[in-house]
Automatic annotation (TrEMBL), chain A:
Subcellular location: Cell membrane
Regions that span the bilayer: 16-34, 46-65, 71-91, 103-129, 135-161, 173-193, 199-218, 225-243, 255-272, 279-296, 308-328
Gene Ontology cellular component terms for the protein in this record: plasma membrane
Record-level Gene Ontology MF annotations: transmembrane transporter activity
Predominant location category: membrane
Lineage start: Bacteria, Pseudomonadati, Pseudomonadota, Alphaproteobacteria, Rhodobacterales
InterPro entries listed in its UniProt record: ABC_transp_permease (IPR001851)
Keyword annotations of the record: Cell inner membrane, Cell membrane, Membrane, Transmembrane, Transmembrane helix, Transport
PANTHER family: ABC TRANSPORTER PERMEASE PROTEIN YPHD-RELATED (PTHR32196:SF21), ABC TRANSPORTER PERMEASE PROTEIN YPHD-RELATED-RELATED (PTHR32196)
Topological category with respect to the lipid bilayer: Multi-pass membrane protein
Protein name per the record: Monosaccharide ABC transporter membrane protein, CUT2 family
From TrEMBL, chain B:
Pfam families: ABC_tran (PF00005)
CDD domains membership: ABC_Carb_Monos_I (cd03216), ABC_Carb_Monos_II (cd03215)
A GO MF label: ATP binding
Domain of life: Bacteria
InterPro entries recorded: AAA+_ATPase (IPR003593), ABC_carbohydrate_import_ATPase (IPR050107), ABC_transporter-like_ATP-bd (IPR003439), ABC_transporter-like_CS (IPR017871), P-loop_NTPase (IPR027417)
The entry's keywords: ATP-binding, Cell membrane, Membrane, Nucleotide-binding, Repeat, Sugar transport, Translocase, Transport
Protein name (record): Monosaccharide ABC transporter ATP-binding protein, CUT2 family
Residue ranges constituting the ABC transporter domain according to the UniProt record: 10-246, 257-498
Taxonomic classification: Bacteria, Pseudomonadati, Pseudomonadota, Alphaproteobacteria, Rhodobacterales
Protein's organism: Marivita hallyeonensis
TrEMBL record, chain C:
Entry's transmembrane regions: 15-32, 44-63, 69-90, 97-122, 173-194, 225-245, 251-270, 282-301, 307-325
Keywords recorded for this protein, A-Z: Cell inner membrane, Cell membrane, Membrane, Transmembrane, Transmembrane helix, Transport
GO molecular function: transmembrane transporter activity
Pfam families: BPD_transp_2
Membrane topology reported for the UniProt record: Multi-pass membrane protein
Organism expressing this protein natively: Marivita hallyeonensis
Main localisation: membrane
Name of the protein in question: Monosaccharide ABC transporter membrane protein, CUT2 family
UniProt subcellular location: Cell membrane
One Gene Ontology CC term in the entry: plasma membrane
């Protein structure tokens, strides 16, 4: 909560290990493939690739902090994107002048964000008021959201946008890719929310001990709803980026992102049982993953091997982290009661 | 003495147990004869749980010898110990809520005989026999989760019996029982003793088990400080031995004359829990609410803070009605609640001391949407200082504190909100005796500052040391109202139990 | 805290699912009299075999207090690698041998999960999420990523074997394949383990309370290990049946089904907290999911709404009991 952490606590934090992993992977890839991995082109293309699933990982993070999970993030992303895409194709057309299509674009973005918030509200209500376990609530609602997207599109891709749509996913501002800017903004916002607001503290504390939160007179239902609404909003931003980059929207885009988002959050040190997690950890985890996967790409390793390596990395990090936990527990057990 | 050792079922000699430099047990001798009931008394941290762990094979002793049934056991684990007939009934009973009564009773037996197949008829037979042995009737097919606490305990006892228990160790056996159930338990224990089964009671409340016990052993700071026939002890002498000192408690000073009514509770009723609860609380008054477990005292406490929604009745604080069944509303009306179970309900153990205190004051320190961290730290540190919390660093997790300091952190959270009414449910449960006296001081001090305090407790000396008035509950109703400054402990105990 | 739950609370969840199925069948029959025929039943049964076997495994994991999302990857891995193996060394091997090898592969991969979960104590969701990626990644990278339609001949023979076949008077063809026997075998075996062996009772006990299980001397680690190995073996069986019946070894199939299978099990009354779950409920859950996936159109709901329907069923099937439990807890105070 305050920043006067000593050097010792910094080096023993799981985030420090992640920093080392990220730097190590970056260094390794730079050595193995110096001319290609470090090329401006590769660095830029990495910066375009990861924000969409990184943002989903942020959405996952805030729900995991409460001890929950959001399995509907990809469903929400696609539903938002489909709604935006339908607006863009129904009311705007590629021939439209930019000044006019921008209006429709903003309208589509607003609609997508509303869908995200609404979906989050549904999830939040299911968890808070109906007492569903988050894993089941969002599993079910995720199917419903995806289902709506299928029903609206008949399962096919929606395409034919005005060029302005490309701004979200493919443009650069001062040489920085827009998706990266969006991700950085959302990461900073989430970090501030979690560490500098009353709501953020309550989220973490609820995750640490839900019962104590009840006894501390925290308005748990309101807090949970907010958490899932934020997750929904983040998901819809990710959906818009995916839509812009693919220049189309479809109900089953990014289906591998769900597990990836969970994986990144856990890799980033977020405790899946709630109560601990830092945005910086998630960011470092995302970077490690992206360096690794780009680097492997350079080395002509197939996409499938990447999946293999991700999984192995996840389990490895868990083994390291929990062994730390076991050691901690061991030292606890050794104090007499 | 040597003949004692020869016949003893459990014979521990010069047992020492060290954990990372801390001596939990220091050269303790301990014997239990077949058919003997022994009270093992001691405060938290006295080493009694360590002793039990050594007997039951959970932890090895650092030094000393363990003999069970005459055989030296240099190496013990829970299985060996259980095979020798040592059965522990933990406070939570360690039952399987999702399985039937019959299976719960027979499971351990079937494991010990290395059965591979599950035979429903044999299971029921084992269970039936065990139940018959103590003469109780429980539906064999009922799921354990549907049983009341007392029956769960009986199931746990039957499970121990079914496994040929020679010694049953019961951890705090009476805390969850009503007077009637305690008497039934006493009967069962007498029966077991007649059959040669030994019993160890581990408890810090011993009045109820003293009369069925032969021997009392008191531990303090890892040492055996007293041992003798149960008839030589009474509650007072036990307390003396357990704490090592007579803790002189100042009785509460009088409520200020003309103190006005702070809280008014009118016919609070919840079906199945409590009925027609009415009382007034004056400023600066400490009101005790007591009763056995199941009397409804905890439900009433929760209802006062909105954690239980009553079916009828009203609560007003300083003349303003407080919506019932809503903790936030209660908290807005400046009612504070410190729960009974600090570890699971009261504190966020993995979180910092600072956060644990600050969680109640977040809104007051928010400006422009963001928290004023410095303000929170200052305020929390101030309260920790005022309550004399010994903590090296406000950023340390609360789980690094001792029980007494943890309780003070829980108090600090509410005090920082400047409550008008503070409901303390079991304020000194699991707190060492020194801190207990300190907490009682704090309670008296807070009352003198004009806070109305409701102490929910079944710790009679605590009630007498802090309360101006004591309400006694039974079966969900208030049956007595006593003046805390004139009633004696015996009288109170009698009213509680009658 | 636990005394409030009526004895038949969760059996009612099964009744609920059975009720929904019955209702669906009535509406379907009313709107299309041809629905309720042996043809439909045999079609649905065929569609249930693979999901059913997987669901029985998933149920076992839930009962033990864990969750497994890797079983589809195990199924595909076992199916594809045993096919590749036999095509390379002994294409004419009899199908029981190929099946046995697939089951063994599955058990071996399950042992990985079991090792991390039982012996290293890692959270089940995270481990199986990780192994899902590992198994799939390994399969596609090192074993192959091409569809194989040229299966060992004996596998194709297996898929031709039928228990019963015929043509109804209305001229509709129906058949019940041998694979149905595998489902029956799995159900009977699992029933036996769960109800008639101490091992099975230990799985329920661990799901009910791990700490209590440890205290009375249940070997928690080995029991958990067994669960994941058994589930792996079932997945291996389901995978090879899927390959044989579909007459194609597709390394991209099955993965993605895991959440639907878990949904079926949960609909059938198994609880995520462990200790609760029955074969009857699981099979009813599977039946409901399969019916929705295959016959939605009969009651007039377009197939594009299939996903929404399943989602809503999951929310209702788990939401109603959860809400009831929440209310009951509030009442009990």
């Amino acid at each position: 909560m305050t920043d006067h952490a000593s050097t010792k606590t910094i080096t023993s934090a799981p985030e420090f290990r992640l920093l080392i992993i990220a730097v190590f992977v970056f260094g390794l890839m730079s050595v193995l493939s110096p001319d290609r991995f470090l090329s401006a082109q590769n660095l830029t293309s990495m910066a375009f690739q990861f924000p969409e699933f990184a943002i989903l990982a942020l959405a996952m993070t805030i729900t995991m902090l409460t001890g929950g999970i959001d399995l509907s993030v990809v469903g929400v992303a696609n539903l938002s994107a489909v709604v935006a895409a339908i607006i863009l194709t129904q009311f705007a057309d590629p021939a439209m002048p930019a000044s006019q299509s921008v209006i429709w674009l903003s309208f589509a973005i607003a609609a997508a964000l509303c869908i995200g918030a609404l979906a989050g509200l549904v999830n939040g209500c299911l968890v808070a008021f109906f007492g569903l376990p988050p894993i089941l609530a969002t599993l079910g609602s995720g199917l419903v959201f995806t289902g709506f997207a299928i029903a609206m599109t008949g399962g096919s891709a929606v395409m034919g946008f005005p060029d302005t749509v490309a701004v979200i996913g493919n443009a650069q501002v001062l040489g920085i890719p827009v998706p990266l800017i969006l991700f950085a903004l959302l990461a900073i916002v989430l970090h501030l929310i979690l560490t500098r607001t009353a709501f953020g503290l309550r989220v973490t504390m609820f995750g640490a001990n839900p019962l104590a939160a009840l006894y501390a007179a925290i308005d748990i239902n309101r807090m949970l709803i907010k958490v899932y609404v934020i997750a929904g909003l983040f998901s819809s931003v990710a959906g818009l980026i995916i839509m812009s980059r693919a220049n189309s929207a479809k109900a089953d885009y990014g289906s591998s992102y769900l597990l990836l988002a969970v994986l990144i959050a856990v890799l980033g040190g977020v405790n899946p049982y709630g109560g601990y997690g830092r945005v910086i950890g998630v960011v470092l985890a995302v970077l490690s993953m992206q360096f690794l996967s780009s680097g492997l790409n350079m080395l002509q390793v197939s996409n499938f091997a990447r999946e293999l390596i991700w999984g192995a990395l996840l389990i490895l990090v868990m083994v390291i982290n929990t062994h730390a936990v076991t050691a901690l527990r061991g030292s606890f057990a050794k104090t007499p009661k | 003495m040597s003949s004692d050792h020869d016949t003893a079922f459990i014979d521990l000699r010069a047992i020492t147990k060290r954990y990372a430099g801390v001596t939990a047990l220091d050269s303790v001798d301990f014997t239990v004869q077949p058919g003997e009931a022994v009270c093992l008394a001691g405060e938290n941290g006295s080493g009694k749980s360590t002793l039990i762990k050594i007997i039951s094979g959970v932890e090895p002793a650092t030094e000393g010898t363990v003999r069970i049934a005459g055989k030296e056991r240099p190496y013990l684990n829970p299985r060996i110990s259980a095979a020798a007939g040592v059965m522990v009934i933990f406070q939570d009973f360690s039952l399987f809520p999702n399985l039937s009564v019959a299976e719960n009773i027979a499971f351990a037996t079937q494991l010990s005989t290395h059965e591979r197949f599950f035979k429903s008829r044999a299971t029921r037979e084992i269970a039936r026999k065990a139940l018959d042995r103590i003469g109780v009737e429980i539906d064999l097919d009922a799921r354990v989760e549907t049983l009341p606490v007392a029956q769960k305990q009986l199931v746990a006892i039957c499970r121990a019996l079914a496994s040929q228990a020679q010694l049953i160790i019961m951890d705090e056996p009476t805390t969850a029982l009503t007077e009637k159930e305690v008497r039934r338990l006493q009967g069962i224990i007498r029966m077991l003793k007649d059959e040669g089964v030994a019993v160890i009671f581990v408890s810090h409340k011993l009045a109820e088990v003293l009369e069925v016990s032969e021997k009392v052993v008191v531990l303090r700071n890892g040492k055996k400080v007293a041992e003798g026939p149960a008839t030589d002890f009474d509650t007072q002498s036990l307390t003396y031995h357990m704490t090592g000192r007579d803790v002189p408690e100042v009785p509460p000073s009088e409520v200020m004359a003309g103190a006005e009514t702070l809280m008014h509770v009118e016919s609070l009723t919840k079906e199945g829990s409590f009925a027609d609860i009415s009382f007034d609380l004056k400023t600066g008054e400490v009101l005790g609410i007591t009763g056995l477990l199941g009397s409804g005292r905890t439900s009433v406490a929760k209802a006062l803070f909105g954690l239980v929604a009553p079916d009828a009745g009203s609560i007003t604080v300083e003349g303003k009605p407080v919506p019932t069944g809503d903790p936030q509303a209660a908290s807005m009306a400046r009612i504070g609640y410190v729960p009974e179970d600090r570890l699971t309900e009261g504190l966020f153990l993995s979180q910092s001391i600072l956060r644990n205190v600050a969680i109640g004051r977040l809104d007051a320190h928010t400006s422009g949407g963001f928290l004023n961290m410095a303000g929170l730290v200052d305020e929390a540190s101030d309260w920790l200082k005022r309550l004399k919390v010994k903590a090296p660093d406000v950023e340390a997790p609360v789980q690094s504190l001792s029980g007494g300091n943890q309780q003070r952190v829980a108090l600090a959270r509410w005090l920082s909100r400047a409550p008008r009414v503070l409901v303390l449910n079991g304020p000194s449960v699991g707190v060492d005796v020194g801190s207990k006296a300190d907490i009682h001081d704090i309670i008296r001090d807070l009352a003198s500052q004009g806070i109305g305090i409701i102490v929910i407790s079944d710790d009679l000396p605590e009630l007498l040391a802090t309360c101006h008035r004591i309400l006694v509950m039974r079966d969900g109703r208030i049956i007595d109202e006593l003046d805390g400054r004139s009633v004696t402990e015996d009288d109170l105990a009698h009213r509680l139990a009658s | 805290m636990t005394g409030w739950l009526p004895k038949d609370f969760w059996t009612r969840n099964e009744t609920l699912v059975a009720g929904v199925i019955a209702l669906f069948c009535i509406i379907a029959t009313l709107s299309d009299p041809r629905f309720f025929t042996i043809t439909t039943v045999s079609d649905l049964l065929r569609a249930s075999i693979v999901i059913g076997i997987l669901a029985v495994g998933a149920m076992l994991v839930l009962v033990s207090g864990g969750i497994d999302v890797s079983f589809t990857a195990i199924a595909v891995f076992a199916m594809y690698s045993s096919t590749v193996l036999f095509l390379a060394i002994w294409p004419d091997a009899p199908w029981p041998l190929i099946f046995a090898v697939s089951v063994a592969f599955g058990a071996f991969l399950g042992a990985f999960n079991g090792f991390f979960i039982a012996f290293l104590g890692l959270p089940t969701l995270i481990v199986t999420l990780g192994t899902l990626s590992i198994f799939r990644g390994f399969l596609l990278t090192f074993i192959g990523s091409q569809r194989i339609s040229d299966l060992p001949p004996d596998m194709r023979d297996f898929s031709r074997g039928v228990l019963a076949r015929g043509t109804t008077e209305a001229g509709n063809f129906y058949s019940i394949p041998w694979a149905a026997l595998a489902l029956v075998f799995v159900i009977v075996l699992t029933w036996f383990i769960l109800k008639k062996t101490m091992l099975g009772r230990s799985i329920y006990a661990i799901g009910g309370s791990v700490e209590s299980a440890r205290r009375i001397g249940i070997n928690v680690k080995w029991t958990q290990f067994f669960v994941y190995v058994y589930v792996g073996a079932l997945a291996g069986l389901a995978g090879i049946i899927h390959g044989s019946v579909g007459r194609m070894a597709d390394p991209f199939s099955l993965v993605g089904l895991e959440l639907s299978v878990i949904a079926a099990v949960v609909l059938g009354g198994a609880r995520l907290i462990g200790g609760y779950g029955t074969l009857t409920g699981t099979l009813l859950g599977v039946a409901l999911i399969v019916i929705v996936q295959n016959s939605l159109i009969v009651v007039g709901i377009p197939t594009t709404w299939q996903s929404v329907t399943i989602g809503i069923l999951i929310l209702l099937g788990t939401g109603v009991p959860a809400y009831r439990a929440k209310r009951a807890a509030a009442r009990a105070g």
